[in-house]
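Q: My labmate handed me this sequence with no annotations at all. I'd like to see what the chain might look like in three dimensions before we decide whether it's worth expressing. Could you predict it?
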Amino acid sequence: MLSFKTTVENVGLVIDGVGVAIIVCAMIFAMARFARNLSIGADSYRQLRRDLGRGILLGLEFLVAADIIRTVAVEPTLQNVLVLGLIVLIRTMLSMTLEVELEGRWPWQQSPPANRAD
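A: Here is what I predict for the chain of 118 residues:
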């Protein structure tokens, strides 16, 4: 019978794999959409960046979740928690910069009102 530590470690690895798979699938999807949009003359480059950024953001969320599960549940030593904090900090900063790149604003700022034709 598997121990709790082994089970949690395996769950963390599966979530890591899901995060990587999301990033890879998003890249394939973005490239396919880029090629299709390029042939019809749409704004392909911006769409490619937006699609890639969204895929990376979603994948990063899964990778952070896996790191938290493995570090806290498997072996919560002070050194492991500090390393986890550094990893989460780096990935959070990366996520925030990607969000600014995609949306043109900080995550805590309100989006500009949509132009409506009344």
